[in-house]
Design goal:
single chain; mainly alpha; Rossmann fold; Tyrosyl-Transfer RNA Synthetase; 2 domains; 5 strands; 6% strand; globular; binds adenosine-5'-tetraphosphate
C-alpha cells in the first residue's frame, strides 16, 4: 500500500454512457442523456451501450428484453448517434463489464453503497425484498465506465452520486493495488437545463420510466396528439410567469416546464422567461406543445422506421460489441495481472 495520491490519468478523452432497456424512453432520458451523446461523439471517442445487465436488477420479461434492447439502440440512432463514429453495443455482449464489476465489488465498501440515494428511492420501505443486483448497481456502473478508461460520462443529475462513487472506486483501486493513475477519475457531464426533468404530474419527483402514470412523462414514441395532450394536462399553477428565474423558486411545476422549453429550444431558462413573462399557462402550454412535437415527433418516426428492420439494428450492435470487446480486453488483462489472479 502507498499513501501517494494516484497520478492523474494520462490518455485520450473518452466518453461512455448508457441507458437501461427497462421501459419506454422519455423526455428526461432524451434531454438528460441522449441529446448529449450525439453531440459528444464528434468531440471525443464515444462508447454508448444498452444496459441490459442493469435492466434485470428489476424484473424484465425474458421474451421482451431483446426487443427492448433494440428499441434503445433505435433511439440512439434516431437521436443522431452514428455507428461509424460512436461504438454502440449491448452490455451483455461484453463480459468484461461483469468481470471487472466483481473486482470492484471487492474494492467498494458497504458504507459507500449504503449512502446511495437511488437505491433507497427505488427500494423504498422493503429493501430486503430487492435484488442484490439493485444494491450493487453503481459498482457495475463503475465497471462499465472504467473498463474503457472513460474520462467523461454524460448523464442526468440523478446519476451524480453514482459518478462520485465511480471516482472513489477508481482512486481506491489505484491506491490499494499500487497502480497510480491506472484508472482515470471520470468527470460527470451534467450541466444544462435538461439535466433534471421532473414528472408532468408532480414537480417534486423526476420524470421516470417506472412511474405508473403514463401522463407523468412524454415518451419518445408518443405521437403528436399524445404529446400535446400530456402537456395540456401537465400540472401547473394559476399564476402568470414572472420575469426573473428566482421568482420561480417555489413553483416546481412551472420551473420544470420552463426548463423543458429551454432545453428543447437550446436556450437558457431566463431567456425563455423573458419571452413569456406576464403570460399564463393557457398561452405558454400550446407553444411548448408545438416545440415538443417539432423536436420529438421526427425522433419517434425515425425509431419506428429503424425498428421495422431489426436485423440491421442487430448488425450495428454486433459490430459495436466486437469493437467494445477489443478495447475492453487489454484493460481487463491488465487488471487481472495487477490483482494477481492465476489467470492474469
Ligand atoms: N428525469 C430525468 N431528467 C434528466 N435525465 C434523466 N435520466 C433519467 N431520468 C431523467 C437520465 O437518463 C439516462 C438513462 O437512465 P436509465 O434508464 O439508465 O436509468 P434511470 O436514471 O433510472 O432512468 P429512469 O427513466 O428514471 O428509469 P427507471 O424509472 O427505470 O428508474 C441517465 O443518464 C439518467 O441520468
Amino acid at each position: 500500500m502507498t499513501d501517494q495520491a494516484p497520478a492523474p490519468y494520462v490518455g485520450k478523452p473518452r466518453v461512455l454512457s448508457g441507458v437501461q432497456p427497462s421501459g419506454d424512453l422519455h423526455l428526461g432520458n432524451y434531454l438528460g442523456a441522449l441529446v448529449k451523446f450525439a453531440r459528444l461523439q464528434h468531440e471525443m471517442q464515444t462508447f454508448i451501450f444498452v444496459a441490459d445487465l442493469h435492466a434485470i436488477t428489476a424484473w424484465q420479461d425474458p421474451a421482451k428484453l431483446k426487443n427492448q434492447v433494440r428499441e434503445i439502440a433505435a433511439a440512439y440512432l434516431a437521436t443522431g448517434l452514428d455507428p461509424k463514429v460512436a461504438t454502440i453495443f449491448a452490455q451483455s455482449a461484453v463480459p468484461a463489464h461483469a468481470e471487472l464489476a466483481w473486482v470492484f465489488n471487492c474494492v467498494a465498501r458497504l458504507g459507500w453503497l449504503d449512502r446511495m440515494t437511488q437505491f433507497k428511492d427505488k427500494a423504498g420501505k422493503h429493501k430486503e425484498r430487492e435484488s442484490v443486483g439493485l444494491y450493487t448497481y453503481p459498482v457495475l456502473q463503475a465497471a462499465d465506465i472504467l473498463i474503457y478508461k472513460a474520462t467523461h460520462v454524460p448523464v442526468g443529475e440523478d446519476q451524480r452520486q453514482h459518478l462520485e462513487l465511480t471516482r472513489d472506486i477508481a482512486a481506491k483501486f489505484n491506491h490499494d493495488f499500487e497502480a497510480p493513475g491506472f484508472f482515470p477519475l471520470p468527470e460527470a457531464l451534467i450541466q444544462g437545463p435538461g439535466a433534471r426533468i421532473m414528472s408532468l404530474r408532480d414537480g417534486a419527483v423526476k420524470m421516470s420510466k417506472s412511474d405508473p402514470s403514463d401522463n407523468s412523462r412524454i415518451n419518445l414514441t408518443d405521437d403528436a396528439d399524445t404529446i400535446s395532450q400530456k402537456i395540456r394536462k401537465a400540472r401547473t399553477d394559476a399564476d402568470v410567469l414572472p420575469e426573473k428565474l428566482e421568482d420561480l423558486a417555489d413553483r416546481a411545476e412551472a420551473q420544470n416546464l420552463i426548463g423543458v422549453y429551454a432545453a428543447l429550444a437550446g436556450r437558457t431558462p431566463q431567456d425563455v422567461l423573458t419571452e413569456f413573462a406576464g403570460q399564463g399557462f393557457g398561452a405558454f402550454k400550446p407553444k411548448l406543445a408545438d416545440l415538443a412535437v417539432s423536436v420529438m415527433g421526427p425522433i419517434g418516426g425515425e425509431m419506428r422506421r429503424l425498428l421495422s428492420d431489426p436485423a440491421e439494428i442487430d448488425r450495428i450492435l454486433g459490430a459495436g460489441a466486437e469493437r467494445a470487446r477489443e478495447v475492453a480486453a487489454p484493460t481487463l488483462a491488465e487488471v487481472k495481472r495487477i490483482v494477481g489472479y492465476w489467470a492474469g
